Each structure stands twice: as C-alpha cells, then as structure tokens.
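Hi X.,

You mentioned you wanted examples for the new student's onboarding notes, showing what a folding record looks like when two proteins sit in one file. Here is a clean example. The first protein comes first, with its sequence line followed by its structure tokens.
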Amino acid sequence: MKIGKQSWRTIWAGQPASGSMLPQQVCIIDQTGLPHQFRVVEIDSVRQMAEAIRNMQVRGAPLIGAAAAYGMALASLESDDEKHLQESARLLLASRPTAVNLRWALERMLERLLPVSPHLRCEYAWREAGCIADEDVVINHAIGQQGLNLLRELARGKSRRLNILTHCNAGWLATVDWGTALAPVYAAFDAGMDVHVWVDETRPRNQGASLTAWELAQHGIPFTVICDNAGGHLMQHGQVDCVIVGADRVTRTGDVCNKIGTYLKALAAFDNQIPFYVAVPTPTIDWRIESGVRDIPIEERDPREVTTISGLADDGTVRTLSLTPAGSMAANPAFDVTPARLVTGIITEHGCVTPNDLIRIHQEMKE
C-alpha cells in the first residue's frame, strides 16, 4: 500500500552487509508511533524481534506470523545450531499467545530448517521468511477480491453509498500488505464503488482510531471514527450495511477470536439482521481446536493500557495521561470470542464460506 506516493510493506529484509549475500537485519514500521510519528525500526536479533511482537511494534495475526519467520532468520545468523533454533522458536512463541499465525509460521520455519545441513540453514531461513511474507501479500489481495464480490452484492439496488463497520485494525498495517478485513474495502474503492467505513476506536489501545483511520486516510477512503459503543445505535438506524472484522484465530467450527469488543458487535449485528463477516487467511484457522471460548488462550495485557491514554498535545509532543483515579484496579483482556452462530460468513483467499462449511472442509482435509 502507499504512504503518500511511496509504496510500503510493514516488514522487509534489510540490505546485506558488505561481503555478505544475506541480510543482517529486518526493517519494520513501528506501529506504536502511529498516527503521529512514522518511523522505521531495524531489528537486529531474535530477542529484539520477540520484544517488537510483545510490545506491538508489529501487530495483527498475519504480520505477527511474518515477523516470527523473520525472527527465525535473525536467529540463524546468531547460530545454525538446532538447539538455538528451537530455543528461538520458543522465545518467539511466548511473545503473544492468542494469534495462531505465530505458531504456524514457527512450525513451518522449523520444518524447513531442521532437516537441512546446518551450513545451509541461514540461507534457507531468509528465503523461507521471504516466501511467507510474499505469500501473505498474495493471499490478502485474494481476500480483497473475494470480499469485493460480497460488497457488490450488498450494494446492488442501493442508491446511496455502502456503509461498512469494522473493529480494531485489520488493514495493511496488520499484515505484510493489503490487510484482511479492509482488503475488500480497498478493492471496492479502487473499483469505483461508493463506500464509507465506520471505524470503531477500539479501546484500550485505540487501533481503530489511530491505525485504521490513518491508513484509510492515506488511501483516500471516506471514514468516520466512532466510539466503541456507537455501533449498535447505527445499526438500529439503518446506517450499517455490513460488519467486516479480522481475527487472530478461528476454530475449525467457526468460532472467531478477535480484538475485545468484537463479540458485542456481532450480537448487535445479529439482532439487527446485518451481515457479519470475518476476513482471514487460511493460516489463521486453527484446525486443532473446536471451542473458541474453551480452547483459545486470551492474552491479558498491562492494566495501564486501560488506565492511561497517549495522544498528541498542543505543543506537538506525544504524551501519556491518566484516565482513572490513582490506584484504580483495571482488567485488560485483549480478545474475545464470537460464537460461530453469529457469523454470516468467513472470507478467505479461496472464497466466502459459512462456519458449517469449515467443518466440512476440515473433514475433507482429514480424508
């Protein structure tokens, strides 16, 4: 996607050092600075990559997977020993517990690296990490095209713009490029459709107000930021045509784990007969688990994310301010689970399927 007139990805391999054919670092867009500060950070070690994932300099399930793959490439620079690679994979896996793409990417990297001779592992690691990143771009572009067909159907017969509500950030910043939930929106806008996005602020980290709003503005797509509790009201008054969200994990039965607050949007959409779609690449589907509420670990983040807020002050500095009385207790579950019964469809790179279709597809895979 583009910032101004320049094309960017969220993560990429750095330039090879003098006398080497392989990169020595990984470059990321530091998302903790957006929307007020755009900065690129160079990651030089597997520990630094694990920390970047943990503190959400990189975030979003597909991007976390790509970052973990590049983290393993950095680990291979440090040592091509099997023990070191296994330990590095455990370090990265522990950085965030909910997004299944993290585990998927690490398992893929180890399956690729461990069978080959140690002296080849570093070269293979950079190559495989690059493949994972490139595949993510292709997959997410395909999700956009599949979702475009749905949006065209929803717009058929309407004489006004199509209003789409989204929660958190599932645009290109959450992936290597294109995004998941926003990929259909980009495809629709680029195809000339009249679309508008209701952007949930998404407390407590405000990924909607800061990240989704920022990238939609970069692309020129009309949007309106709303507080998290406004969505149901808009649905009741016919101002939402569909909801599209991303996910950090989808079970084989179609339960959807996404940013906290998604469940409430799904309930409101169900009550108002509004389609609720989830856009995910297939690596986000966890075929090993059945019940989202029972089986998906929900990350508990720092309570200070709830009790404080950061923003741009009048003097141009970014400041962190307290919201609550001193000593207030706060709970901060980062995700919730939307049951499959509330999901209209799951948009993947292969098409849109119902949760029941996932069960059938999983059975066919096993056969």
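Then the second protein repeats the pattern, sequence line and then tokens:
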Amino acid sequence: MSEHTAIDILDSMFDLFKQMGSGIALDLQWLEISRRLQQVRAEAVWSADLDFVAIKLKAHAAHYAATYQPHLGSEWIRAANAGKLDRVVEQYSILRAHLEQQRGGM
C-alpha cells in the first residue's frame, strides 16, 4: 500500500473540479470522483475518519452536480455554484490532509 500513490490519485481530481466548475458532464465527473476515491481507498490504510471525509466529498460533489445551474450572466448563480464547488474542494483538502498525516506517521 502506498499513501504517496493515494495522494497522487487524489490530486488528479483537480482536473475534475475544473471541469465541474464549467458545468461540463457533471454526472460523469461525479462518477469519476467516486472511482478515484475507490482507487485511493485501495492504496491507503483506510480508517473511519478517511471514510467519513470521503463520503462527505462524494456527497458534496453529488449535491453540486444535482443543483448546478448555468449562470447565464447572473453573478448570483455564478457565486452560488462557486460556493458549492468550494465545499467539494474543502472536503478534498481535509481528505488530503488526513492522507498526508498518515504518510508522515509511517
């Protein structure tokens, strides 16, 4: 098992977040996030904390995908979309910090 590989897989999600931010194929992006989280789980020593954060990450990504609205020039809608995506990235950051801590403890 390699926490380094797990972190590399997790970091590859930033491209997905960028695509989600532009509203491209949101359902496919959510599925790809789920797939990559399964790969991370296979590489890392998994704990209840990691599982909790991973579930929150998937839930926020699903919520973003389900509630995304094209902004059509509306700053309010653009800000609402950005806020939801920020919560997805926040959960990613928490998960990454847990993996970094795990890697440092080995």
